[in-house]
Amino acid sequence: MLAGIRALHDRLGQLEGFVAPVGRVAQGAGHRVTPAWKRATNGEARWQVTLAIVVAITLQSGVPDQFVLRPGWLLPTLQIVLGVVLLMANPRRISRQSRLTRVLSLTLVALLSLANAWSAGVLVLGIVNGTATLKAPS
User: Helices 99-129 & 47-61, crossing angle to 10 degrees?
Assistant: First the structure.
């Protein structure tokens, strides 16, 4: 049992060498290692996030009126405005992070989540109560 603990300790020591703090030489590597979370990066591309937001808002616009938080135009309008403001603040890459853009980003995610949760909740209640009637388009 003691040999197993020593082997585990040695293996953890080796793994620690791969993410050694700045200025410390990694075991067996012979060079200084900077952990990934301390390295400066270019930031992630904005277009994927923008596309996901546009798809989410578009899908929400197709939800029948009986499942939408009233007034029906309010949440999509707020989501679009927040998306445009965030896109203008950082059009190419998400690299500069200010407190304001972080709060706006989290607000946008909260609004998207609220709209989806509201629609799902009303649908589930309608199914449980037997009041959710929706006819397929003909």
Answer: 30
Q: Which pLDDT does position 137 carry in this prediction?
A: 65
Four-residue CA torsion sign, 115, 117, 123, 129: negative
* Cβ-proximal residues to 18 (8 Å cutoff; 6+ apart), any chain: 26, 29, 33
Rounded distance between C-alpha atoms, residue 81 and residue 103, angstroms: 14
Q: What pTM, to 2 d.p., does this model score?
A: 0.62
Express each pLDDT in 38-87 by its tens digit: 667 777 778 888 899 999 999 888 888 888 888 888 888 899 999 898 88
